[in-house]
């Protein structure tokens, strides 16, 4: 296989992952009034979310992977942490921190940025952790509402990328 045909294959594969995300997001948007209502759990099953995670990973959108890991019935910390360690991310990592509602993931981001000497990004992660609606002492309904709000905004932002 020549380098030209390899790059053509890579481009084709990339287009397939983008197209797959387009269809997954379109399905969610249609049944949720463009994510203004929750996407029904029979539409975004764990299997569908895992496929979306795989697409984002193969597109090198590693922060999106970490955020989608929160959508699973049980958060996949192993995949989230591994994706955040990636240095070749094609998404604007710190611009996505407002979509993260799991404090453990935000704490890991703070640790990573400290370890890498990225003080500006570390401050953004610390600011995200400090949002009062994420306080673990809040009633469960407040935490659920914060998660729903972040899910909605994240899915709307992703839809704008892939539509």
Automatic annotation (TrEMBL):
This is INTS8 TPR repeats domain-containing protein. Residues 13-162 form the INTS8 TPR repeats domain. One of its GO terms (biological process) is snRNA 3'-end processing. Its main location: nucleus. Pfam families: TPR_INTS8. One of its GO terms (cellular component) is integrator complex. It comes from Marmota monax. Belongs to the Integrator subunit 8 family. It is found in: Chromosome; Nucleus. Keywords: Chromosome, Nucleus.
């Amino acid at each position: 296989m020549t380098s030209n045909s390899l790059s053509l294959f890579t481009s084709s594969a990339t287009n397939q992952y983008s197209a797959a995300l387009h269809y997954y997001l379109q399905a969610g948007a249609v049944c949720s009034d463009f994510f203004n209502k929750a996407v029904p759990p029979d539409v975004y099953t764990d299997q569908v979310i895992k496929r979306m995670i795989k697409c984002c990973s193969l597109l090198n959108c590693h922060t999106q992977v970490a955020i989608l890991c929160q959508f699973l019935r049980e958060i996949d910390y192993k995949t989230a942490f591994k994706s955040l360690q990636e240095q070749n991310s094609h998404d604007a990592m710190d611009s996505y921190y407002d979509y993260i509602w799991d404090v453990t993931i935000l704490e890991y981001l703070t640790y990573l940025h400290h370890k890498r000497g990225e003080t500006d990004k570390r401050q953004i992660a610390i600011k995200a952790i400090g949002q009062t609606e994420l306080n673990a002492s809040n009633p469960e309904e407040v935490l659920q509402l914060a998660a729903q709000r972040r899910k909605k905004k994240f899915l709307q932002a992703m839809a704008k990328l892939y539509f």
